[in-house]
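This section describes the prediction task in plain terms. A model, or a person checking by hand, is given the sequence of a single protein chain and must write out its three-dimensional structure as a string of tokens. No templates, partner chains or ligands are provided. The sample shown here is typical of the held-out split.
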Amino acid sequence: MFNRILVPLDGSTLAERAIPHAEQFARIFGSSIMLLQVLDPTSFHENPSAVDPLSWQIRKAEADMYMQGIAARIREELQESPDDTEGRQYKGKNAIKTSVEYSIREGKTAENIVNFAHSENMDLLVISTHGSGGLSRWNISSVTQKVINLIYLPVLIVRAYCQPTTPDARVHYRRILLPIDSSRRAECSLSAGIALAGGEISSGFLSEGNNRSLRRTAPVISPSLTKLILAAVIKPPELPIPEPYPVEIEQLSRQLMDVSRQAVTNYLNEMQERLPVECESCVLENVSVSSAIQELASQEEDIDLVVLCAHGYTGKYAWPYGSIARNYIEHGTKPVLVIQDVPRSQVQPTAAEIAAEKSGGR
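The expected answer:
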């Protein structure tokens, strides 16, 4: 499912908070990890043309050493063979395959990340909400926002402002929240949720067997602790008439809610029976689907990951994310995996992209 994972880094510890999640996905899916650092002259000097060539070469050398160190550390975490512990710079799609590679590019950060992901056929982007710019009042940095808006790939967004329990702790997804709206389109996130839950159980047994060889031993996961939480939200009908509603309208509204509740409950029960992993389900009632999901994820303190489809039954291809996914990306507090259901072949350029291309902009 996720054979090639892209992790953008910028030398900051905030950006590095995405690494443990990429490592765990690599364990579960057997993925290779590609580290990418983009050196932007505009972030180095107010006037890029005035950048001293020697200083720029020093910066590139420092970036190379940094990426080598990160790659070596990840290899060690993934229990690579001792003979393959040094980071290796990536030379293109035809390079020798390794579990962890890195690339250093020059130019505009967001544009380079998106272009690299597409040209190198990445399957998943794992990115932190913040990087070298530091934490701010905004939940997502401008670079991350730009990247996820145009990448049209599955993305795992890690909340940099949420401190890990311990810096070296291995990430585990014991309870995975999977909101669905009963549409076939939203079910595209099911396969990822099932694979993650099943992979956590397998990696738990693997950790137990290799317990003595691990340098930093992670807690062994019991299968009973790895669970999918299927959540559905039903909304009261929106009526284009002023309040207070007539009695007969109130009765019809309650009847509709009763029918909807029963239908959704049956749907979730049937799904639980056919899924190959342990599940629990909940049906929520709220005038706002986004608020209900936010509240559930916040109240359930042991939720480790939220998995969403980019669009539900009302979503349109014109936008990269529907309103529910967009809301949780921007305002959620838990790591979120968003499965993109829109093929890149069907993505139309935005008005800004068309104007930029005509004007020769980037």
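For orientation: The domain at 4-168 is CATH 3.40.50.620 (Rossmann fold).
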